[in-house]
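In this section we walk through a basic example: taking a raw amino acid sequence and producing a predicted 3D structure, encoded as discrete structure tokens. The instruction is simple. Fold the sequence below.
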Amino acid sequence: MDFNVKKLASDAGVFFSRAMQFTEEKLGQAEKTELDAHFENLLARADCTKNWTEKILRQTEVLLQPNPSARVEEFLYEKLDRKVPSRVTNGELLAQYMTEAANDFGPGTPYGKTLIKVGETQRRLGAAERDFIHSASINFLTPLRNFLEGDWRTISKERRILQNRRLDLDACKARLKKAKAAEAKAAAVPDFQETRPRNYVLSASASALWSDEVEKAEHELRLTQSEFDRQAEVTRLLLEGISSTHVNHLRCLHEFVESQTNYYAQCYQYMLDLQKQLGRFSGTFVGNAEATSPPAATSPPAVAAATLPAVPTIPVVPTIVGVPNTVAESVLNPNEVKPPASGTRKARVLYDYEAADSTELALLADEMITVYSLPGMDPDWLIGERGNQKGKVPVTYLELLS
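The resulting token sequence is shown next.
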């Protein structure tokens, strides 16, 4: 019990001494041991790394999970060391709704078929998003979080210890300075004419006491200086390790970019495939729409068809459900029509396109082809020519040139 009381009293004395030293430094009444410029640069670099790592981590979490409630839930599960339950992505939920709507509208109808195709693509997009979030969390968020919760806490702890060692060192310097000043004052030769012998004896005794106090203060100064130097070296090594942290975070950043690139590439490919599927059936959907609602005579023509030259007008027979339109089919057969005598336009192919049948023309990205329009054909399609090859091509895959 006595030992605990003595230790408590000693700790209280040390705390009071540090508080006094810190207060006097803030008031400009005490000297402060300054660290070298290299050490200060290491401290500033470490603080900068910590601040920006926190911001990058927080914003990346927002990017991967925009819902704040979901982020709080994941944080609680992580702190409780429990597995986060699987959550349906927005794309997967949209796919579910589209599939259910297609079943209600009729999976055999054009609208139902399209809903099923788009829903399947949304499901694949949702799955790709889930994989991306999982990969980014493991390869990028986890290393950043480990740095803040591991290495940075160790650095902060050692910096606090170094701060206490510095306060102890400066307090010892101040005590030594006061002890030397008192010793010098006590050692001054007294005036024997005005000072009694008894006072002279007391003055000599006080001088000896202050000499002992100076020796004690010098001993404490040597000990505190040694502890400060040792702690400064430990802290310096930890701060220099920030360079290794930057290298590790750089590697993690490359992995994050690679995951994000793969994710967007998957999304692009899925949407490209969906666009091809919808493009093949666009003529069917238009035909069905025309069968249910007659076209308005005042409706403006499509932009692509209006800006391209057309062959002489041929009457178009309206499409009737269940009855083949032989006139329109004969007109729209690319192998049986001739291009206009003049005014054809050049077009650059934006994406690769695989022909669905013999009436379509397969395309390669960045190639140049000649295009023109035919009366009676779907405005979303054009006739394309490349050398001796000819066929229908979707407008959305082209960049029309002047």
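Looking at the output, two observations stand out. Residues 283-331 have pLDDT under 50 and may be disordered. Residues 30 and 117 are 77 Å apart (CA to CA). In the next section we compare this with other chains.
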